[in-house]
Amino acid sequence: MIEGTPVQFLPTSPGLLDEAMQHAVQIDYDGVPTWVLGAEYLLAIAVSTGRAKDRMRVPLFLESGKIDLACLTDILERHALFERWETWAQQ
Question: What is the pLDDT of residue 89?
């Protein structure tokens, strides 16, 4: 938490996290320029980690209606995560 706002810091490394950071977008948060990852990258990272708490976030993202499925599929395929995604989708 930073001044009451939940934040998460992710170390980058070559691959998915590095790419996600390269495609981060700058937003204004209470007058402070802030960089955030796109929803498609956040979903791909959740699939990558495979943790139960990340899996629980997937329906929330999908129900938001703001996920570009073509973009998500492209990311998942490039990072060899599409099969895991399909398994999650079937459950």
Answer: 78
